[in-house]
Protein: peptidylprolyl isomerase
Amino acid sequence: MGHARLTAALIALAAALPGSATTLTTAEVLAQSAPQEWKEIPADRLLVMDIERGQILLELAPEFAPEHVANIRILAGQGHWDGLAILRSQDNYVVQWGDPNAEKPEARRALRQAKERLPAEFDRPVDGLPFEALLDPDAYAARTGFSLGFPVGRDADNQRTWLLHCYATLGAGRDMAADSSTGAELYVVTGHAPRHLDRNITTVGRVIEGIEHLSSLPRGTGPLGFYESPEQHVPIRRIRLAADLPESERPRRERLDTHSRSFRLLIEARRHRREEWFVNPVGRLEVCNVPLPVRTVAEG
Structure:
C-alpha cells in the first residue's frame, strides 16, 4: 500500500474509533485501557542494573539483535559487570559503562563463555514483525512506527527495519569495524535523540524504569564526556537478568501493547493535545516523543 493510501486509511481508522483522540487525553487513554492490552515483560528479557543511586530496568530486544542479546544474557549470568563502572556521561548524549581496563589485555576482565566478536546487527528484515505506523514524516527514515514495544524505522524499498535512537535507547558500543561489538560495553541515550546513530550501531533495547539514575549523573570532563580519573567512575553493584534473581527480588513490569487499540488512541492523543494547558494542540508527532507506558504488574 502506498504511503498516501496508508495515511488515509490510518486517519480513517483513528476517526472511527469510539471516544477517539478528538476528546481523550493521554491520561484518559491509559485510564480506559483494557487489562489484556498490557503485556508482561518476560523475566529473561528484563535486565536489572543496580548502582548506588538506585535500580535501572532495561528491556532487551532479541528480535532485533539476537546475537547481541544472547551475549548480554551470558555476560549478565557470569556477573561480568559486577564491580565495573559507568565510565562516561556526556551532556545531552549518552551514559556508557563497561570495563575501565578494556584496552589493557593483561588487566581487562575476560568474557569467558561470551563471544569475543559479534556481527553488526544494525537492522533486520521486516518479515514476521508487526508494525504500528506513525503518520508523520521523519527526517531519518522513510517510515517510522512501533514494533513489539519499541520505536522503529522502516525502509520499504529494501524491506529492512531497525530500532531508533530515542531517549532511553540501549545500545552496544563498538570500535571502527562494524563487527567489533561484544555487548560488554553498553550505553543509554540520555539526551535529545541522536538519530544520526541509527543503523550505525547495534541497538539492543531500552530503559523502562530508573532512567533518572543515569541522566542525572555528573558530566564527564574528558573528551566525549568520559570521566578523567577512576575516582569519578560510578561503580556498578550488579547487573542480572530478572530471570536469574530470586523470586523475592524479581521486578515484574508490563507495557502497553504497541499494537493495541489503546496505543493507537494514545498516538492520536499525543498528536492532538487536548489537555487544558495547551493553546495550540500541535497536530503532528515525532516518533521519539510517543510515550511507551510501563507499569508494575499487580499482585494477585
About this structure: Residues 41-252 form a domain with the Cyclophilin fold (CATH 2.40.100.10). Confidence is low (pLDDT under 50) at residues 1-21. The CA atoms of residues 139 and 195 lie 9 Å apart. The chain has one domain: 41-252.
